[in-house]
Design a protein that fits this description.
Blueprint lengths: L8 H13 L7 E7 L14 H6 L1 H13 L1 E5 L4 E2 L8 H4 L3 E4 L4 E4 L18 H17 L4 E2 L7 H9 L1 H10 L1 H26 L5 E4 L4 E4 L2 E5 L8 H17 L3 E7 L7 H5 L6 E5 L13 H9 L3 E5 L5 H15 L4 E4 L6 H8 L5
Parallel strand pairs: 1-13, 3-6, 9-10, 10-11, 11-12, 12-13
Antiparallel strand pairs: 1-2, 4-5, 7-8
């Protein structure tokens, strides 16, 4: 990687390996970004259609370069570009169709029955798969090593089935067609790495390290955020039977993995997740209207993660810099620095950002 925006890439990569592996560290991993860098701004016209926001790679690269030019990356922060076609783009590769809006990409329901999951196959000629692969290739060429292009958010297991069938329909299918659901998950598992590996081969760095979209993660080898947001609507028993084996298979084929736990309704599945030996870390999304990751009410989640010997990703955003610093110190006092990753909001002040950077020593 070039030193355009980061002077010491090797130090950051080493720090992430410490975090993934729970190697002893005197201070937590921290993503700190500050506004105000006096960089060169490239001209950029406003998009004329929602599709341009997601599909126009030259425009996306220019927009992200302008971001990097006007922001400082401090502590363990690093620049990485997302090229997502919505959350769960494997649903598109498997025959789904996108709906582009100005602020999101949503997927249109494809199947009238869970039994149609049996028809799912890897298709090298799929329109959206070909488009997304070309986007990745073009992005790497235009990034020119100045920043990572992250592996897209392809997603897995029940979340892909939900995108193809519709979440309400899938809820009924879980009761009426459990065998079809199990088979659908097996097929999704069987094709996941056919997509992932091709993105990885395109987007990995010279030392085989990679960045996965969402949550600003970096690691040596194949890494990914894994998830099942649909789990909020199923019992711990169903989760253990259908989802955990799928996640375990996925994690076994990755060098590093982090689970995205989304909202209070998913907390009931933490014990099952902690039984996945191959899972390295847990990321906690607190939910709309809930206090941020620094709140002590979430400590029971963190207790389980630490007892299982896994790393934690914690986002702090309530209040201002002083509140973020206080919550971070309280968490480190309770759990130590090893295996802790804090993500802070963008700082308006470079001085405040540097102060936070040195919160646990220079």
């Amino acid at each position: 990687m070039r030193t355009t925006y980061i002077s010491d890439w090797e130090k950051i990569k080493s720090r992430f390996e410490q975090w993934w592996n729970r190697d002893k560290s005197d201070k937590p991993l921290m993503r700190i970004v500050a506004k105000g860098r006096p960089g060169k701004i490239l001209p950029l016209e406003k998009p004329k259609t929602p599709e341009e926001i997601y599909l126009d790679i030259p425009r996306i690269i220019t927009d992200y370069r302008n971001y990097c030019e006007t922001h400082y990356f401090l502590a363990d922060a690093f620049p990485t570009l997302d090229i997502n076609l919505g959350p769960g783009s494997m649903a598109l590769y498997l025959g789904g169709e996108p709906g582009f809006a100005w602020d999101t990409v949503w997927y249109k329901e494809k199947f009238d029955s869970a039994r149609e999951f049996e028809t799912l196959r890897y298709d090298e000629t799929n329109k959206w798969w070909r488009i997304h692969r070309k986007m990745a290739l073009d992005a790497v060429n235009l990034a020119a090593g100045d920043f990572y292009v992250a592996i897209p958010d392809i997603i897995e297991n029940l979340d892909i089935l939900s995108a193809l069938r519709g979440p309400q329909n899938l809820c009924f299918d879980m009761l009426d067609e459990p065998d079809a659901i199990r088979r659908g998950v097996e097929i999704v598992d069987s094709v996941y790495f056919k997509y992932y590996d091709r993105f990885y081969d395109t987007l990995k760095d010279e030392d085989d390290s990679s960045s996965y979209t969402a949550f600003q993660i970096l690691g040596k080898g194949k890494i990914a955020k894994v998830q099942c947001d649909f789990c909020a609507m199923i019992s711990p028993g169903m989760f253990m039977e259908i989802v955990v084996p799928s996640l375990r298979r996925e994690c076994q084929n990755l060098n590093h993995s982090i689970y995205h736990l989304d909202g209070p309704d998913a907390i009931k599945h933490v014990p099952a997740l902690m039984e996945i030996k191959e899972l390295d870390a847990l990321q906690w999304t607190c939910g709309a209207g809930k206090p941020d990751g620094g709140c002590e009410k979430w400590y029971p989640i963190y207790d389980q993660v630490r007892e299982a010997g896994k790393s934690l990703w914690i986002q702090l955003y309530d209040g201002g810099p002083a509140d973020w610093a206080e919550n971070a110190k309280r968490i480190v006092k309770r759990y130590g620095s090893t295996g802790i990753y804090f993500l802070f909001p963008e700082f308006d002040s470079l001085a405040e950002a540097k102060k936070t950077e040195n919160l646990f020593g220079e």
